[in-house]
Amino acid sequence: MSHILVPDHPREETARLLGQARHCRQLATGVAEDDLIDQLMTLAKSYEAKAALLRASCGVGS
């Protein structure tokens, strides 16, 4: 059985994760290196996936 740590304030943590994803995407628009763009976009997707998992596990709305 796997365990997930649930933050004290899941709604705020979800918003923080989505904000980090947005920030990564914004940074990617100002970079010329393809490798760095790919890394930032991958990081953004990771933040979004964590936010989606948190929403699903805690019943947090969008």
Verbal overview:
With 62 residues, the protein is mostly helical. Helix content is 73%, strand content 0%. Helix 1 runs antiparallel to helix 2. It is elongated, with a radius of gyration of 13 Å. The mean pLDDT is 89.
Share of residues in helices: over 70%
Overall 3D shape:
elongated
Query: Structural class, from secondary structure content?
Result: mainly alpha
Topology, number of strands: 0
Give a nutshell description of this structure.
The chain is mostly helical. The protein has two helices and no strands.
List the helices and strands and how they pair.
Elements: H1 10-29, H2 34-58
Helix pairs in contact: 1-2
Task: List descriptors.
62 residues, mainly alpha
